[in-house]
From TrEMBL:
Any Gene Ontology CC annotation: nucleus
Subcellular compartments: Nucleus
Keywords of the record: Biological rhythms, Chromophore, Flavoprotein, FMN, Kelch repeat, Nucleus, Photoreceptor protein, Receptor, Repeat, Sensory transduction, Signal, Ubl conjugation pathway
Ranges where the F-box domain occurs: 164-201
Source organism: Amborella trichopoda
InterPro entries according to UniProt: F-box-like_dom_sf, F-box_dom, Gal_Oxase/kelch_b-propeller, Kelch-typ_b-propeller, Kelch_2, PAC, PAS, PAS-like_dom_sf
Annotated ranges, domain PAS: 49-102
GO BP field: chloroplast relocation; circadian rhythm; negative regulation of cellulose biosynthetic process; positive regulation of flower development; regulation of DNA-templated transcription; response to blue light
Single GO term (MF): photoreceptor activity
Domain of life according to the entry: Eukaryota
Lineage start: Eukaryota, Viridiplantae, Streptophyta, Embryophyta, Tracheophyta
Keyword Flavoprotein: yes
Pathway in which the depicted protein is active: Protein modification; protein ubiquitination
Protein's recorded name: F-box domain-containing protein
Amino acid sequence: MYHLLFLIYIVCHSFNPLTLKLPLCLCSLCSRFLQYRDPFAQRRHPLVDPVVVSEIRKCLEEGIEFQGELLNFRKDGTPLVNRLRLSPIHNDDGIVTHILGIQIFSEANIDIDRLSYPVFKQTSCHHPNEVNTDSFYYLQAPNSHGHPCRHICGILQLSDEVLSQNILARLSPRDVASVGLVCRRLRQLTKNEHLWKMVCQNAWGREATGILESIPVTKRLGWGRLARELTTLEAAAWKKLTVGGAVEPSRCNFSACAAGNRLVLFGGEGVNMQPMDDTFVLDLDSANPEWRRVKVSSTPPGRWGHTLSCLNGSWLVVFGGCGSQGLLNDVFVLDLDAQQPAWKEVLGIAPPLPRSWHSSCTVDGSKLVVSGGCTDAGVLLSDTFLLDLTVDKPMWREIPTSWTPPSRLGHTLSVYDGKKILMFGGLAKSGPLRLRSNEAYTIDIEEEEPRWRQHSGTGFPSVGSQSAIAPPPRLDHVAVSLPCGRSIIFGGSVAGLHSASQLFLLDPREEKPTWRMLNVPGQQPKFAWGHSTCVVGGTRVLVLGGNTGEEWILNELHELSLVSKPEMDPEMMTSNH
Ligand SMILES: *[C@@H]1O[C@H](CO)[C@@H](O)[C@H](O)[C@H]1NC(C)=O
Ligand SMILES: *[C@@H]1O[C@H](CO)[C@@H](O)[C@H](O)[C@H]1NC(C)=O
């Protein structure tokens, strides 16, 4: 037996408060309460009591409570008993705006093909203050002993607050926000930080909310506002900032990532193609952030065209790239917070081919994923490898082997929903040619046999619809994973007259994902490269470097802030005065 709480949100404008006539959609909704054995059935199953159905309709129309039992069917057609309670919720003017529903399902012990109708108990309509114990007599209050029957259902004894918080916590951030607009009572019930944190946690997963919890922005804005701003991106803005210190000697083709509120940079190509092996950190928490060289007691061989990713907390991982002896396929990890930080090599069994300009990401705080890149012979790769760094004798695993997207370099991997990866763009092999790509692929590495799938509708821009235009093909671009599972793409090397700084948004979880363009105010960077961009705390994207001819200026940063900053916050400003 299991319980299902739900809230029917009346969105129909046709609801007439004077006649209390329910809109058609609600009647069809209540007649959808499971009287059809399968979606294609044209009639109700003969065992469904038509009296119950008309009782529901009557109670809904009169704005009074309904309690009763219904025959219901699973997707596969097996019968279930559905004990249903529907209570109307009135707004400040006494108009029914919502209906609170409690469903309790249990197995129906009947042979659906043999029994003849009717098999279900009487139902009744109640005025709110009466509690009919009969309708729920199979349920026992948690603290009652002995008699299995004639106890009031435990759920019915809970307060409005507890019930509504439990129901609301299961809705999406958007729905909770809508419910809060209905009346003062519901607004009050949705103004609860704990509730909003649960809503965010359900929608975005524990890992994403854990990261958000650790950043000061969340405290300042509160979970409700944060959820709104990350959903609508209404407060997103670009800003330019300058930092102190120096990354010397100057270099290009390094790799950078964020560890907590710190930016970390490793390696790169110095003058005369010298492979660099030093590590720099920029602490954004300090009052005057400055680049500082990290004193490490041991370091990986110098390289460029490698990947640096944050594994978990203060742990970083480097893979591959081009060193003085050619291409590499080694793995090194560093704990920035160790007393004496040192890069340590992880010797994985059966490593993938040495490569550069590949793409990497980390999953679960423990696994490194490496995909594509370019070999010594200049051949593009299409493989995907995974290495669990937390096990004793780490072993590389190739995923998947059946079908892979065309081989490529300079693409991005971004993680969403915890274990799923979105691959986008790069320089891809297309017959005898190598072309910039704007294809998107996804994979769920938790599946038993993970496989790449191409996203339909993302290959070619569709004509006529502005909002459905895919980003122009590109490589070495920036891909940002939002806590809510969507991805933002911008920057990189784009052909022709297209602007690289235009932002594009994609939700890979949609059934038919479509690209949307995002217009963001503020001073945007002229260019942004994937290997020199960091995402901090899930809400700030930092683009490193201006470029004057040959040199990279790493004291110039552009920040894309996805939530409102204190100085732009009108509510904060008024409270300060
Ligand atoms: C970085 O590496 C790429 C690819 O090897 C190369 O084409 C480029 O000239 C290098 N330097 C800069 C400044 O991008
Ligand atoms: C992070 O990863 C490293 C390397 O695998 C591991 O030793 C460490 O325990 C992990 N830390 C956390 C907090 O998970």
